[in-house]
Amino acid sequence: QDALSRFVQPSPADFVWEQPDRRFMEEDFILPDVAGSMLEVVLCLDTSGSIPNEALSYFLNESSSILRSFDRVRGFLIACDEQITLIRDIGEEDFDLESVGGGRGTSFAPPFAWLEQEGVRPHALVYFTDGLGDFPALEPDYPVLWLMVNSDVQPNFGEVLRVKLQ
Questions:
Q1: Smallest Cα–Cα separation from 35: which of 11, 12, 9, 13?
Q2: Residue 100 has what DSSP assignment?
Q3: Which residues are 148's β-sheet partners?
Q4: Which letter does DSSP use for residue 97 in this model?
Q5: What's the pTM?
Q6: Distance (Å, rounded) from C-alpha 8 to C-alpha 107?
Q7: What torsion, rounded to 10 degrees, do the Cα atoms 114, 125, 54, 135 define?
Q8: How far is the C-alpha of 43 from the C-alpha of 95, rounded, in Å?
């Protein structure tokens, strides 16, 4: 939980001086408005056949925990086995095991390709997986955290957080 929170950080707040805070327009001083502090994150769930329901439940719980940790979050939750089975705006609805689909082989490339195609560049991408699959050849220009469950697989890019489930 702590490692995930440290990895997924919102963009720092930035002060905007061009348009002062309207609530204080009648005062003898000028206060800036605050912009920023929005977390843009993509959470990817490996829904391939090698992922047991216990691990998938863990993925969904940790995803919810990440989202509750921040005041303002936007981005996507993407479920993928060998192809994308679900794309949802974060905060759109709660997710359950039945809604994510999957159960086939594993390729980690489709979410990265979709983000590239859509022009989405998140502050961070967290991929929940067992690591058994084909990794993308090219590293994206945003941070990637592979949360590997019961695995010692080493991806070709990104940081790795290993979790043992009983």
A1: 13
A2: G
A3: 129, 162
A4: G
A5: 0.76
A6: 23
A7: 60
A8: 12
**What does DSSP assign to residue 26?**
T
Residue found under tokens 């981005």: 75
Residue type for 10, please? P
Rounded CA-CA distance 45/129 in Å is 7
User: For the segment 80-118, what is each residue's pLDDT rounded down to a tens digit?
Assistant: 999 999 898 876 556 555 666 677 889 999 999 999 999
How remote is the C-alpha of 39 from its chain's centroid?
Answer: 10
DSSP string, 39-70: EEEEEEEE-STTS-HHHHHHHHHHHHHHHHT-
| pLDDT at residue 146 in the model | 94
- N-to-C CA span, the chain: 17
d(CA 145, CA 160): 6
Which residue type sits at 13?
A: A
Contacts of 134 (CB under 8 A, 6+ apart): 106, 107, 108, 109
DSSP 25: T
User: Is 118 strand, coil or helix?
Assistant: helix
